[in-house]
């Protein structure tokens, strides 16, 4: 929009993934600035509403379509609409937790002093400290800074104020930076002077290439090929290439701004246990990739992109090793691998091994799913299973039932909704409701990325307040990892639409009733979204496989491990036989294995 020759860019779409509270706070502030700068706040109400719903983005617009307004609320007032988004994006705060976050904040390694102070101020905003705010931020700075010398200096000042503490912190940080620069200059000068004296000396030293002590130019590793990274002139024992393993998929799909990939499992291996490498042509350059069937993204060090003319796009995605060490990502781009386009995360560390993840390796036919075992278990790898014992949702009778009014469905989605309801009814996931019910839930329609299909989600926010949870323990990644010690071969199996494989009893089915233009329906299987679903499903899966040695369960994932191929395959068949017995079906597309040849995965 223009005003006196000025152009104001609208804020980007509101992201409903990741830290929703923080996303909303930032977006709301930017929108208010935009509204005032472009003088849209002087426009008629309906025009302001149209601008808001246009700028906020398609996902948030779908959320808006689920809002209900009372007769007293003006649906054309953008501040009423903003309040609805506020209620959705900012759940009821816990003051004790907010203060705990502030009072335990420590300056992290690599975090600058200014970044630390800014984070403290942000955390304090929700703590209701009032007139004590500045003094408490000052105290937290003193207690949380990493520098012991600066901490001591601040403690000596009995009249220390917040402004003085910030000034001292910035001054020390600046002085350290300048000192480092001065030392680097001095060291380089000293090195240059010493080289002349050292030329005549044949002093032995510990070689970084072979690991032994010898004179210069007498390295036993010179001309040898490293068995770890396949590069020349060093032994594998001295290889600096970091062991990057299994870039895991997030539990929930998120936008690129919130993606975080943890690196912490096992890599694709040959029969002898060695890692598998594959030489591929990337934009005319030969690159030796490690094949990681657990990886969901591809990695390429930045120095290998020299000479490749491709635009590097910014990304806020994070990569972390299994130890928690962050890997700096410069950006991402699409590169041609053997003539096919694949997305790569470009990293700064030149010692990192290039990685091809599962999807790219499969697309390039480096690995492929075999049909041998799948043909042996057609009922396990096909259709939607159904476990025997129905689940009964326990309800707190003191919570008053809620009946949500029907929500308006956009014309463009009405036929898709009708088709989806028919399909889910045919599969036995939902059924028509012909009797009065105390509970009627809202329905959320989510368009899939290709826009050819939709996903129906129950909105059980009111029902969840009444559900009594079982609080079954869910294992952590650390607990599972410890039990994997000593294993060499792994397979990961994924339940097909997991929650839908648990039937509900008659009373529980009616609790999930929801309204549509085609009438009322209810779920006959456990729907996504109810607060007890995750722990109930994990409990059922855990109980089904806990007697089989070498099997770990994590929600809808089943991990089979073995010390060798024979042990792994025996356990895998026990799992598949058990699945057939209890009528649990698996997703053929999500089967992942980490060995060279086994009934499910094969390497060319």
TrEMBL record:
Designated name of the protein: Polyprotein
Domain Reverse transcriptase: 427-604
Listed InterPro entries: DNA/RNA_pol_sf (IPR043502), Peptidase_aspartic_dom_sf (IPR021109), Retrovirus_Pol_polyprotein (IPR050951), Rev_trsase/Diguanyl_cyclase (IPR043128), RT_dom (IPR000477)
PROSITE patterns documented for this protein: RT_POL (PS50878)
Domain of life: Eukaryota
């Amino acid at each position: 929009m223009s005003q006196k020759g000025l152009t104001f860019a609208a804020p980007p779409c509101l992201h409903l993934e990741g830290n929703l509270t923080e996303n909303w706070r930032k977006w709301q502030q930017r929108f208010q600035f935009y509204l005032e700068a472009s003088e849209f706040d002087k426009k008629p109400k309906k025009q302001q509403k149209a601008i808001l719903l246009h700028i906020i983005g398609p996902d948030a617009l779908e959320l808006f379509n689920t809002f209900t307004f009372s007769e007293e609320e003006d649906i054309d007032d953008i501040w009423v609409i903003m309040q609805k988004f506020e209620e959705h994006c900012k759940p009821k705060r816990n003051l004790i937790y907010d203060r705990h976050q502030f009072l335990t904040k420590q300056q992290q390694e690599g975090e600058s002093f200014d970044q630390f102070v800014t984070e403290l101020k942000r955390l304090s905003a929700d703590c209701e400290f009032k007139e004590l705010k500045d003094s408490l931020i000052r105290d937290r700075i003193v207690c949380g800074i990493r520098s012991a010398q600066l901490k001591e200096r601040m403690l000596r000042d009995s009249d220390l104020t917040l402004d003085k503490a910030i000034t001292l912190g910035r001054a020390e940080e600046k002085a350290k930076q300048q000192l480092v620069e001065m030392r680097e200059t001095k060291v380089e000068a000293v090195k240059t002077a010493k080289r002349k004296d050292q030329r005549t000396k044949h002093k032995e030293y510990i070689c970084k290439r072979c690991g032994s002590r010898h004179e210069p130019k007498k390295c036993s590793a010179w001309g040898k090929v490293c068995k770890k990274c396949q590069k020349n002139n060093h032994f594998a024992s001295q290889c600096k290439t970091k062991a990057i393993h299994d870039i895991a998929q997030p539990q929930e799909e998120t936008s690129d701004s919130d993606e975080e990939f943890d690196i912490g499992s096992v890599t694709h291996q040959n029969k002898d246990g060695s890692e598998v490498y594959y030489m591929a042509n990337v934009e005319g350059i030969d690159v030796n990739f490690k094949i990681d069937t657990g990886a969901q993204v591809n990695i390429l060090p930045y120095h290998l992109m020299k000479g490749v003319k491709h635009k590097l796009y910014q990304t806020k995605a994070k990569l972390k090793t299994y130890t928690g060490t962050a890997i700096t990502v410069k950006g991402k781009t699409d590169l041609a691998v053997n003539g096919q386009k694949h997305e790569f995360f470009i990293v700064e560390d030149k010692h990192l091994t290039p990685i091809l993840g599962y999807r790219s390796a499969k697309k390039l036919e480096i690995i492929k799913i075999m049909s041998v075992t799948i043909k042996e278990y057609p009922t396990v790898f096909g259709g939607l299973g159904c476990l025997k014992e129905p689940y009964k949702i326990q309800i707190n009778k003191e919570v008053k039932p809620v009946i949500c009014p029907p929500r308006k469905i956009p014309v463009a989605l009405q036929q898709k909704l009708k088709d989806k309801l028919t399909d889910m009814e045919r599969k036995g996931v939902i059924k028509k409701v012909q009797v009065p019910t105390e509970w009627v839930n809202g329905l959320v329609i989510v368009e899939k990325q290709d826009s050819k299909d939709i996903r129906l989600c129950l909105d059980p926010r009111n029902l969840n307040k009444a559900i009594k949870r079982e609080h079954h323990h869910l294992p952590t990644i650390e607990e599972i990892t410890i039990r994997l010690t000593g294993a060499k071969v792994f397979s990961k199996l994924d339940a097909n639409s997991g929650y839908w494989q648990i039937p509900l009893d008659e009373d529980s089915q009616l609790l999930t009733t929801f309204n549509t233009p085609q009438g009322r329906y209810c779920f006959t299987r456990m729907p996504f979204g109810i607060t007890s679903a995750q722990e109930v499903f994990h409990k059922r899966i855990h109980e089904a496989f806990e007697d089989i040695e070498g099997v770990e369960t994590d929600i809808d994932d089943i991990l089979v491990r073995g010390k060798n191929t024979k042990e792994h395959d025996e356990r895998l068949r026990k799992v598949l036989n058990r699945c057939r017995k209890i009528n649990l079906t698996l997703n053929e597309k999500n089967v992942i294995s980490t060995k060279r040849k086994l009934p499910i995965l094969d390497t060319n």
